[in-house]
Amino acid sequence: MIRWIVLSGLGHAIVVALGLLLYVLGTRIGHQRRHPSAALGWVLGMLTLPYLTIPLFLFFGSRKLVRPRHRAPVPAHHPVAGAPAWATQLLAGLELPPAQPNVRIALHEDGGQALAGLLATIDGAVHQLDVCTYVLASDATGRQVAQALAAAAARGVQVHLLIDAMGSLLVGRRLLRELRAAGVHVRRFMPLLHNPLHGRTNLRNHRKLVVADGRRLWSGGRNLACEYFVDRPNRPAWVDLSFEIDGPVARQAHVQFLTDWRTARGLMLRRMRRVDQLPDAGAPRTGALAQWLPSGPDHADDTLHALLLAGAWHAQRRIWLVTPYFVPDDALLDAWCLACRRGVDLQLVLPRRSNHRLADMARERALRQLASAGARVWLSPAMVHAKAVLIDDQLALCGSLNLDARSLFLNYEAMTAFYGPAQVGWLAGWIDALRTGAQPYEARRPSWSRDIAEGVVRAVGFQL
């Protein structure tokens, strides 16, 4: 019996050692930078429950599917008229497509207007239509969009619909069967049950975009469900943002979609395949300046996190933020607090209560820290689902990125940077109006039990 216990203890120690070795190899060789709470959680799990933690690590452990590569020195920067040099130079160093003039840009705050723009984009497609969404519901709005996609396929348009397997877990199978029967190519991004060597179940595609013929883009923060567009009895539509762009940014989003479509099963491309040839009318030389900014496991850098961090240091006058969930990492939170202390007007608009109660609890420590540094935090009575960032009078961001660690470090996300005074001014006015109907946040010292609960939730905030 004693010999069996010794051998069992030795066997358990070997399993623990192999688990820790797997963690080290998986993070160091792949250059997987981790949030401290996530790293601590994995190590403690390997030590205490290795038989459960090791399989979980195989499915959920990696957060990057692309390794950093040696880069040539960044070429001499050519300033872009109307865009801040610090931003364009940083994004060029991160190898993102450059800012370009576009024919037309229209931002939507009204859900009805946003839905009309979405349907117009679908109806205007002639050759090819790309649709990517996190949530596709089987409600009235989801079916209205599905009918428009089926009609596009019926008139000969090549329609591809990419939905996230987790976000659209409850989408009706009947709706998907109807779409496939109508000729729509449907694919689920990163199925929940798949070969763990082909990807990670925890890496979700949160991007929202509709591209018609590589020329017209509809994007923003809205998913394809009623709550993002229309009021219902006792259920008002959420506050959200979307936009339309006619121009080169649409082609950049089309290239993004092609990559996402081919990697939806978890297989990473060794190199980008040739982009499908679409009729191209040529890029305009003048127009509203915008830039497509993707971020996620398919990029070696945390591009949007880097941009927000640089913006905190370069902002001179204001940083205005709108987000439904606020669980940033310590580096970004400290940078925003220091920006407040050097006189930058930092204002944050959140819903008083979001649709994720754990996220509301996890945000409290960060809100108290911001408020003590001099930031003004506003709580909207409505559910705010919009994601927007305004830095000085030169840069506005809008898209799918929440200001939490999951969006910053785990999800496939996409924001669009607007540099034109019309778009920056529009967004500033919209945030002003949103702030008018909100109440100021009052920081209160928590009880010891509340403080412990916040700490526990904050420890897993990286996974929220």
Spell out the key features of this protein.
transmembrane; 40% helix; 464 residues; 18 strands; Endonuclease, Chain A; membrane; alpha/beta; 3 domains; globular; seven-stranded mixed sheet; nine-stranded mixed sheet
What does this structure look like?
- The protein has 464 residues and is of the alpha/beta class.
- It folds into three domains: 2-60; 104-268 and 277-283, Endonuclease, Chain A (2-Layer Sandwich), CATH 3.30.870.10; 303-463, 2-Layer Sandwich (Endonuclease, Chain A).
- The protein is built from 15 helices and 18 strands.
- The protein has helices at residues 2-29, 36-48, 50-60, 85-93, 111-123, 140-154, 173-181, 248-262, 303-314, 330-341, 357-362, 364-373, 405-409, 421-436, 448-459; strands at residues 100-102, 104-108, 128-133, 158-164, 185-189, 209-212, 216-220, 242-246, 288-295, 318-322, 326-327, 345-351, 376-380, 388-391, 395-399, 403-404, 413-418, 439-440.
- The strands form three sheets. The chain has a nine-stranded mixed sheet with strand order 1-9-17-15-14-10-12-13-18, sandwiched between helices. It has a seven-stranded mixed sheet with strand order 2-8-7-6-3-4-5, sandwiched between helices.
- Helix 6 links the parallel strand 3 and strand 4.
- Helix 10 runs parallel beside helix 12.
- The chain is globular, with a radius of gyration of 23 Å.
- The two termini are 45 Å apart.
- Mean pLDDT is 85; it is low at 270-279.
- It holds the Pfam family PLDc_2.
- Residues 201-228, 380-407 form the PLD phosphodiesterase domain.
- This is Phospholipase D-like domain-containing protein.
- Keywords: Membrane, Transmembrane, Transmembrane helix.
- InterPro entries: PLD-like_dom (IPR025202), PLipase_D/transphosphatidylase (IPR001736).
